[in-house]
Amino acid sequence: MDGSCKHFISLSLAWLAFLCLYFTFVSAELQRFQQPVKADGSLSFLVIGDWGRKGAYNQSEVALQMGKVGEKLSIDFVVSTGDNFYDKGLASPDDPDFKDSFTEIYTANSLQKHWYSVLGNHDYRGNVRAQLSPILRRIDSRWLCLRSFIVNTEMAELFFIDTTPFVDEYFRNPKHQKFDWRGVIPRKKYLRRVLKDVESALRESVANWKIVIGHHPIRSMGHHGDTKELIMQLLPKLEAKNVDMYINGHDHCLEHISSITSPLQFLTSGGGSKAWKGDFHYLDRDEMKFYYDGQGFMSVELTQTNARIAFHDVLGKVLHSLDLSKQLYTAM
């Protein structure tokens, strides 16, 4: 075989490999992770958002109470709603902020479980690939952060969505902020794929509880308020697929808003460190169930047919709780 023929074959194989990677990328479904439940079939977890400040702004105090509640509930994992590291995410996989704001803060035995995390807008202001890097899992095996993914359990599916690229302001008027959009551009194509994958996953889900998690609120009376892009593009899909809860951070508060058009509950857990006292908007009384402008976190307990959600303050006190129930889902 002469040299030109070998060169042609090498190019053909390289092109074939590229096509395989390309079609895998454009048609890839959301990555799924299996999470076992307890022996009695129940599940419990904590939710924390907007936290990574090296222990400052009561982050360490919130972490202490998370450890106590986590032990009491024998939690199975922790959910982070984003803005994991302030002020500009991580600079690299070996950024000391990872240990200073995560490993050395959440030290309770009960918190040594998987941490399923999404990216917030402040995380996008750093090196996004650093925070997504598997290297961090070698530093602290609890850490799992992807753009969008699914956690499967026997009774519930948790759909994690990358919401930051939905917000027009970050592209049109970033002010003095610089975002790491690698992996997102071209934006319209990226958003179409996210919405398609989420809608497909929700349609195929047979879980009794469907919980969607993103950084930005769909509905909120906090500082940032409603996210109009999510109301227009995401909310109709969640309501059509009978999603039970949408959980977010971004607003540095704890809040519960109940939809008046569907069973969907809007739950904000963004009080992991710095809070914004007195910074809120008023909502319709029928929708607004609870608002707290201080630090804290959320706990969730699930069985096949019942859910209990509680909001805890910086002292661990339960400020508000809600109980949900539903019939056991049976596939046709």
Automatic annotation (TrEMBL):
<dbReference type="InterPro" id="IPR051558">
    <property type="entry name" value="Metallophosphoesterase_PAP"/>
</dbReference>
<keyword id="KW-0408">Iron</keyword>
<feature type="signal peptide">
    <location>
        <begin position="1"/>
        <end position="28"/>
    </location>
</feature>
<feature type="binding site">
    <location>
        <position position="121"/>
    </location>
    <ligand>
        <name>Fe cation 2</name>
    </ligand>
</feature>
<feature type="binding site">
    <location>
        <position position="250"/>
    </location>
    <ligand>
        <name>Fe cation 2</name>
    </ligand>
</feature>
<dbReference type="GO" id="GO:0005576">
    <property type="term" value="C:extracellular region"/>
</dbReference>
<keyword id="KW-0964">Secreted</keyword>
<dbReference type="GO" id="GO:0003993">
    <property type="term" value="F:acid phosphatase activity"/>
</dbReference>
<protein>
    <recommendedName>
        <fullName>Purple acid phosphatase</fullName>
        <ecNumber>3.1.3.2</ecNumber>
    </recommendedName>
</protein>
<dbReference type="InterPro" id="IPR029052">
    <property type="entry name" value="Metallo-depent_PP-like"/>
</dbReference>
<keyword id="KW-0862">Zinc</keyword>
<feature type="binding site">
    <location>
        <position position="83"/>
    </location>
    <ligand>
        <name>Fe cation 1</name>
    </ligand>
</feature>
<comment type="similarity">
    <text>Belongs to the metallophosphoesterase superfamily. Purple acid phosphatase family.</text>
</comment>
<feature type="binding site">
    <location>
        <position position="252"/>
    </location>
    <ligand>
        <name>Fe cation 1</name>
    </ligand>
</feature>
<dbReference type="GO" id="GO:0046872">
    <property type="term" value="F:metal ion binding"/>
</dbReference>
<feature type="domain" description="Calcineurin-like phosphoesterase">
    <location>
        <begin position="44"/>
        <end position="253"/>
    </location>
</feature>
<keyword id="KW-0325">Glycoprotein</keyword>
<keyword id="KW-0732">Signal</keyword>
<feature type="binding site">
    <location>
        <position position="86"/>
    </location>
    <ligand>
        <name>Fe cation 1</name>
    </ligand>
</feature>
<feature type="binding site">
    <location>
        <position position="50"/>
    </location>
    <ligand>
        <name>Fe cation 1</name>
    </ligand>
</feature>
<dbReference type="Pfam" id="PF00149">
    <property type="entry name" value="Metallophos"/>
</dbReference>
<dbReference type="InterPro" id="IPR024927">
    <property type="entry name" value="Acid_PPase"/>
</dbReference>
<feature type="binding site">
    <location>
        <position position="215"/>
    </location>
    <ligand>
        <name>Fe cation 2</name>
    </ligand>
</feature>
<feature type="binding site">
    <location>
        <position position="83"/>
    </location>
    <ligand>
        <name>Fe cation 2</name>
    </ligand>
</feature>
<keyword id="KW-0479">Metal-binding</keyword>
<dbReference type="InterPro" id="IPR004843">
    <property type="entry name" value="Calcineurin-like_PHP"/>
</dbReference>
<keyword id="KW-0378">Hydrolase</keyword>
